[in-house]
Every structure is written in structure tokens, then in C-alpha cells.
Design the sequence.
């Protein structure tokens, strides 16, 4: 009789434990992971990564950090691994590329690239006040952190009918070489890229009276600005005449995608070199970044990218001037 009672008690306990495990697993599956912009910036712009120069140990550490973040969020490598390798002269370097498959059986065959460069210029030959590490907080740890935060949203919510590729580029500072490599690779693979949105220098707001939050390069080449603002329900991006004057459309990682594929590929940022004095300077540090502003950029751009990802047709188009 004691054995029977013991077996019954054990069975009841076992079933209770299994039921609790099912509840726990369900709760865990519904847990949304969240990493602050500041936590990403604290690593990417730290002295530990030594300015993230192409080919450096610091860049390798930054790439591992990005890949680990993707892995934690459940964003899969687009290729065999997260590292899309290529050569710069005799130096091996790599973009970091992850993706989220779209939820629509048809539209998932179309891709949107969301990108930023994660490299910077490394150490300066002439130290300034004893500091030789150009940490590149605004340029472009901010863009990288912005992409990671946007990727986090879509990984947690799966609100994308089209597939999203999150690409962090190396070798931007020496000629847009990482984005050039990836754009040409994707073109040779006949990948159906709908559009490309790049983020550059999102760490500080404009200090003059503008109607928009962020500039968009190549404003008049496509209707991307119009559609971003429509999807967001307000004027998020606008035209910077300073950005046009300095040719910023051709100076960031959107350009190789535009050139290789002829698609709308543009950069969103909040610096046109009029509101930040530390471009490629060792004082481009985290203490000068406005994290609240960065979060606003993320929050405004998420519905814009959702609009791109979920429209029934490709609404963003190049503008042909007759």
C-alpha cells in the first residue's frame, strides 16, 4: 500500500512539474529581449575596441559583439556565418550580416537592407591631450546601435511581411568597401532587394530650427522621404542642402547598393557636419551623445520600416527626371 501511495504521489508531482515547465516555457517564449542603446554604445565606442579600424583586433571584437547580439535576438546569419568576409589588399575583414525571414509567403522573397558601418579610423598618429584613440561614437557606433535596436524590435515582434537583412559594414572609412562587396555579392546572387536604408551619425540632434528630425541623403532621387514620413505619420526626414553640398549621398554605405542595383538606397542621419565638431577626432566620445535623441530616431523609424516591409506593392520608387 505504501508503494502505491508513493507512486501516486510521485505521478502527481511529476505531472505538476511538467505543467509548470510548459507554463514557464510559454512565458519565456513571450519574453521580449531588450538592450539599451547606451549599452551597445558603451562597448562599441569604448577604448577596448580601439577605434574599430579595419583589420584590427578591436574591429574583430566589435564584430563578435554584433554577432552575439544577433544570435541572442534570434536573428539568423544570412550566409554560412554572420561574417561576410572579403579582402582589403592583404587584410581579411568582414561585414556582419543577419536576417529575419518575412511572414508573408510571397513578399518574403523580397528583401529590405537596413545597414550602417561599424568600423572607424582607429588610432590617430598625433594624440590630442594624451588620447590617441578615435572612438567613433557618433561616427558610426550610433548608426550601428540604431540598427541593432531596430533589429531587436522586429526580432521581438515579427511585424515584417518582407524579409529584413541587417548589415553592419566594415571598411567604410577607406572607401565604402564593405558595402560595395556586399551589394555586388547580393547582385550576383540575384537577390530581390527592394530598398536599402542606411544609418549614419544619429547621436546628436540638429541645433537649428528644422521641421524634420533627420536628414535623408539623395532626397530628390526617390520618393523614400515622402513614404517614410507617410508611414511614420509625421515629418521624420527632410532635405539637407548642406548634405547635398558635401555630396553625402555618395559618401556612405547606401551608395554601393544604389550604384550596383539601381534601387532606392539612402542614408538617414542627424548630422550634416554643421552640428558636430568632432568628426574623425579623438573627442568623438559617448559623453557627447544624446541617447534620448537616439531613441527618438529609432522610435520614429520603426513604423517607417514597417511600412516598407508590409506594403502590398513596392511603393518606394526612383524618380526619373525627364
Sequence:
Amino acid at each position: 500500500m505504501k508503494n502505491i501511495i508513493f507512486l501516486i504521489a510521485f505521478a502527481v508531482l511529476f505531472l505538476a512539474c511538467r505543467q509548470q515547465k510548459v507554463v514557464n516555457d510559454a512565458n519565456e517564449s513571450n519574453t521580449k529581449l531588450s538592450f539599451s542603446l547606451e549599452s551597445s554604445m558603451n562597448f562599441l565606442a569604448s577604448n577596448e575596441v580601439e577605434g574599430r579600424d579595419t583589420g584590427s583586433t578591436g574591429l574583430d571584437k566589435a564584430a563578435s559583439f554584433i554577432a552575439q547580439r544577433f544570435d541572442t535576438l534570434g536573428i539568423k546569419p544570412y550566409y554560412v556565418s554572420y561574417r561576410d568576409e572579403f579582402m582589403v589588399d592583404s587584410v581579411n575583414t568582414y561585414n556582419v550580416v543577419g536576417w529575419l525571414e518575412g511572414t508573408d509567403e510571397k513578399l518574403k522573397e523580397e528583401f529590405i537592407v537596413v545597414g550602417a558601418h561599424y568600423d572607424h579610423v582607429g588610432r590617430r598618429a598625433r594624440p590630442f591631450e594624451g588620447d590617441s584613440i578615435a572612438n567613433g561614437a557618433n561616427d558610426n557606433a550610433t548608426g550601428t546601435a540604431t540598427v541593432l535596436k531596430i533589429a531587436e524590435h522586429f526580432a521581438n515582434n515579427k511585424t515584417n511581411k518582407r524579409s529584413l537583412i541587417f548589415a553592419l559594414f566594415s571598411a567604410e572609412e577607406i572607401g565604402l568597401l564593405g558595402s560595395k562587396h556586399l551589394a555586388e555579392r547580393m547582385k550576383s546572387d540575384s537577390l530581390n532587394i527592394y530598398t536599402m536604408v542606411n544609418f549614419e551619425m544619429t547621436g546628436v540632434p540638429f541645433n537649428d530650427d528644422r521641421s524634420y528630425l533627420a536628414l535623408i541623403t539623395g532626397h530628390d532621387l526617390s520618393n523614400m522621404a515622402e513614404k517614410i514620413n507617410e508611414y511614420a505619420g509625421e515629418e521624420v526626414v527632410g532635405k539637407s542642402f548642406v548634405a547635398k553640398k558635401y555630396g553625402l549621398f555618395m559618401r556612405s554605405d547606401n551608395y554601393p547598393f544604389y550604384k550596383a542595383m539601381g534601387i532606392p538606397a539612402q542614408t538617414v542621419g542627424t548630422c550634416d557636419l554643421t552640428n558636430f565638431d568632432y568628426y574623425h577626432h579623438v573627442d568623438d566620445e559617448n559623453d557627447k551623445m544624446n541617447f534620448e535623441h537616439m531613441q527618438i530616431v529609432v522610435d520614429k523609424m520603426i513604423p517607417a520600416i514597417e511600412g516598407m516591409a508590409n506594403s502590398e506593392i513596392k511603393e518606394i520608387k526612383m524618380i526619373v527626371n525627364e
Q: What stands out?
A: Residues 37-310 form a domain with the Aminopeptidase fold (CATH 3.40.630.10).
